[in-house]
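hi! just following up on the protien thing from before. the input was this:
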Amino acid sequence: MTTTSETTTRQHPNRIAARLGTGVLVGLVTVYAVAVVATAPLAGDSATSPLALVGLAAVGVAAVAVGTRWPAVGATAGAAVLLVTVFAVWQRISWTTGTTRWWYPTDAVGYAAVSACPAIVGAVLVAASVVRGRQRNTTPDL
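and the predicted 3d structure came back as:
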């Protein structure tokens, strides 16, 4: 007969705050990265340049990597991305197309209101974090 001892560890409040702050920062950088990659004036006459699609895929891969490596940071970052998107839609922030202001952070928030790309990346961050967080608890409930 074997017994398992389950110890609960409390995390320091400063560590939790650092993870939440890092998650918010990663979320804001993610919104900006998605907007810049998607709206950059890259070569090509198509509606969406193949280089932009590759860049968006790279941002998505980075989002999955963050979400699986650091679940708390990934979940917070995904929530921040989704909140920025909701805020942009709620406030009806406008976004103008063009090649002169594609790197401006304010246009990144406007892009979040008109495109599904930031919302999809935010949802991927949350989903990857939840999956990873559920895999950590491998002890059976008895």
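Helices lie at 13-39, 50-69, 71-90, 105-114, 117-136.
The chain has a mean pLDDT of 81.
cheers
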